[in-house]
Specification:
Helix content is about 35%, strand content about 15%. By secondary structure, it is α/β, with parallel strands linked by helices.
Amino acid sequence: MNTACHQFDPISPSRRDLLRRGACGFGSLALAGLVQQVASAATSPYSVPVTHFPARAKRCIFLFMHGGVSQMDSFDPKPRLNRDHGKPLPFDLPGLIRPDRLGKVFGSKWNFSRHGECGQPVSELFPHLAKQVDKLCVLKAVHTEGEAHGQAVLRLHTGEANFVRPSLGSWISYGLQSENDSMPAFVSIDYPAMHGGVRLYGNAFLPAKHQGTQIRLRTSTEKLPQVRHLESDLLSTERQREQVDVIQALNRTHLQRAGTDPNLEGVISSFELAYRMQRVAPDLMDIESEPQYLKDLYGVGDRWCDGYARQCLLARRMAEAGVRFIQVSTDYHWDHHGNIDHDLPESAAKTDRPVAALLADLEQRGLLEDTLVVWTGEFGRTPVAQIDRGAPGRDHNPHGFTLWVAGGGVKPGFSLGETDEFGYLAVEDKVHMHDLHATILHLMGMDHERLTYRYAGRDFRLTDVYGHVVKEALA
């Protein structure tokens, strides 16, 4: 533990004791609320965080393509694959768990064209993103550890697979707090239930208030954003305030006796935040209030992309409201071990239009300049066919893949790094997952080596003892 544990007897108060303690608690709560209101007024509408250096981005939208996108079929064309299609790969595939299930060189089925003033090649599977390519900073030599999804997904979200560590969003919440005292600093929209679960938005040993707030949209039967237990249909707002006051008085009594208890402090903070969220969150999550032209731009109502369109539109609303880190995850539909000819176009169609609309919308509102957008899977795919699933697909490849970032202080219309001519190994200007995390923190004004938290006798950080800022990608 990062703090000493204090033993105390459980509370078993009489009615008189409860009223006495409650009265003291109400007074403390009222005073704390008054102090908070004065502080909020002084910094209205948003608080100004203390950063290590001037931030280029105030917030981050993290678009997770769950399953692993094929780099050679999206943003990293490899002509050699098509020339050698059907031939044996002229080198071994080091580091793969199951090379026995892989076949011959597998060319891409889709054409690439150069787009924008930057001339970045983009697959025909992404026609909408191709129009936004001058906003993108494409990193083509990313690498990580972990052949399995669970390992790679955890490393992407927390920097670590073997131990429970705080998620990227929790570190940003811890470092910057929220811009809006009625909304959390970290929101997770439809977090992945597989390959990590709560760890993908969890706070681990950081104070409990830095865990991501879950918003369910994709699994909502009415296609409306939902935060569980946010509102009560049984009690009026005034009655809920009275109920919260009583609970908080008891919580503060517990805390006073415990001395220090980060978990209890997190509970107290969460009750107050939840109460304040009731006033603003329902309207904020009302994506149906958006004008029709904007819903059409994102693809709301489209048979292919309606789900992710709603997620991206909600992410923009959250960014506009001052949420620091918005995690937006797709379904687990990018894992194309087989039948890639059919399944990859469907995956691209589910996300291409909404993501492109998000970039255009942020720019139109003047938000892209200080909003960092990250688009990535947990790893890439192999240049050879996987042949044990019927129609061929591509296996996992953490040794060289592509992601892109946009806005928030990165070079627009820029490409960095190269994989080998088959698209398997990162070979030039390599970017490790720790480097990506260090760069995200840097753009948000934080030094990844100085953003630490003492726990169990040592200082922890997101990048552990690794990571370098990718300075070549900075504007």
